Amino acid sequence: MTFPRIAIAGAGLGGLACARVLQLHGLDVAVFEQEPAAGARPQGGTLDMHADTGQVALRTAGLTEQFRALARPEGQQMRALDPHTAEAVIDELPAEGDESRPEIDRGQLRGILLDSLSPGTVRWGRPVADVTATGIGARLTFADGVSQDFDLVVGADGAWSRVRRALTGVRPEYSGVTFVEFGLDDADRRHPALAAMTGQGTMMTKVDGKVLIAQRTSTGHIRCYATFYAPEDWAAGLDFAAADAVRDRLLERYAGWHPDLLAYLREHDGGFAHRPLHVLPVPHAWTTSPGLTLLGDAAHLMPPLGVGANLALLDGTELATALATAPSVGDAVRAYEAGMLPRSIETAKACASGLHDLLSDDLGSMAA
Question: Are 130 and 75 spatial neighbours (Cβ–Cβ below 8 Å)?
């Protein structure tokens, strides 16, 4: 029996989940990642793993036990505060035994997936420069000029996917919403009042198209996001390496909020990161092409409302299962895309509406 040559571009959650399930079925796979090593950069904040998507994928990957060892059911707590009084409007604690959406740090989850793979599966420091369909498969050309042919190239390479460029040519568009990320280190000891306001999970407050979000991680770090409507060039001339200038600009934008809430900005540790929110148009779909397919953000980049990582994991495990069970690579890709594309389109529509709700003045929408 001839096994297909499968390449995955990108060592994010979806690509790693796909590789894990392929290996469980005895199939060979290579994951090409531009980062030089697993710990080359911080992996972001905390994720809620949904029982009907992300947890299903982890079960398919045989990693439920490892996930539960690190997951934080208490992280499901949701607090909504009034921006003018800092008083709690909503404080929802998870019920005893509720593990419908436990939190886990993104870096921890990525570590679980990496540890589950055969040594050498991920080829670190191998950025993909170009992707070309060959009619019967696809060719990857790497930054060093070396090319390699595969029966299937899976684009798990995120928002600015090079594989998507070869398959659909569609690029993400600015959503009109921007995120500015910052954080508080060792919050229980260094920022106890803010730690108490945050709780064990997520705190949000908002008014007039401006939102402040704080999320606790497993280390006691609190990751914060100032989120607001803004033109794409709102930060023109603002040097994000100059933390004081960024803080002052944000304090001006959030003027009139309660001082206890503005303390998240005043007491931040380190710098700020500008994260303008880009999304793919809805619907984003394509005709099945021999040798190429997409998963995760490469397929359906949408607002970060708690579903992206879950869908990426589910995409990856469903694609791998199809590849392991269908009579051919082409049949597998068609079966996978027939399920993934309608699901992602409906979810992207819901997320577009959810982004509007997030930036509305309705504090009750936070508990949804």
Answer: no
